[in-house]
Amino acid sequence: MVKKKHSLSNRYKRFFLNERTAMIAAAVSILILPVIYFFGNRSGAIDLPGKYDLLIRLLLICTLFYSLKKHKLLLMQAATVGLLFCMLCAQSQYALGNLANRSSETYITMGLQGFIFLAGERMILFIQSFVCISHFIIHAARRQEAIRVSVNQISILFLLALVVIQLIIAPALTFERDYVLYIWTLHLDELFTFVLVACAELILMIDQREFGGE
């Protein structure tokens, strides 16, 4: 049992410490942003603040990847915080604004997939909030606590799983086609962005653990 735990932990570290993982995640995230803009414009789902959010997200993803490549820890910390809050604000506007303003009949007529999708968006918002708070608690502490670090890493993996579920459900929704494509590309971008964030979180965790002498 112990060997299995160590094996999973090592696989997790090998994957998220691999420079290729960060490079692919950053590249795909950046390439998807214009597609989100395109379908967001066509469906009328993206407004001026949404466009500004995409621009800020582009700059933060580039900054985070640069800091990962050059191992600039302070810049990595700043870019991670900025990206987490940027995505949290976008998700709160989407889950509590865009989706919440639609009538309940919209989701009732879609059936189970509509209910799961709506619940999934709220859950993503909750986990994003938890990850943001956890990020500050962990990195503000003088010494790293293994339990808090593990909980934060599990939260990010759970967040990735939720985004994958939303990607599977989105094509089955009865919204207009362009809006469905907007939702799908938006979540696909989030998936790769959170992979990039996970890479940064792991490096920051290892650095702080070494600094704390653990």
Class per helix and strand makeup: mainly alpha
How large a portion of the residues is in β-strands, by DSSP E?
under 5%
Number of discrete helical segments: 8
Radius of gyration from CA coordinates:
18 Å
Major sheet attributes:
none
The H/E string reads HHHHHHHH
* Tertiary shape: globular
**Uncertain stretches of 5 or more adjacent residues:** none
**Extended strand count:** 0
Give the terminus-to-terminus CA distance: 24 Å
Helix content: over 70%
Mean pLDDT: 84
Offer a quick outline of the entry.
By secondary structure, the chain is mostly helical.
List its traits:
8 helices, 214 residues
Architecture blueprint of SSEs:
Elements: H1 2-17, H2 19-43, H3 48-70, H4 73-98, H5 104-110, H6 112-140, H7 146-169, H8 177-211
What does this structure look like?
With 214 residues, the chain is mostly helical. It is 86% helix and 0% strand. The chain has eight helices and no strands. It has helices spanning 2-17, 19-43, 48-70, 73-98, 104-110, 112-140, 146-169, 177-211. α2 runs antiparallel to α3 (48-70) and α3 packs antiparallel against α4. The longest helix has 35 residues, at 177-211. It is globular, with a radius of gyration of 18 Å. The two termini are 24 Å apart.
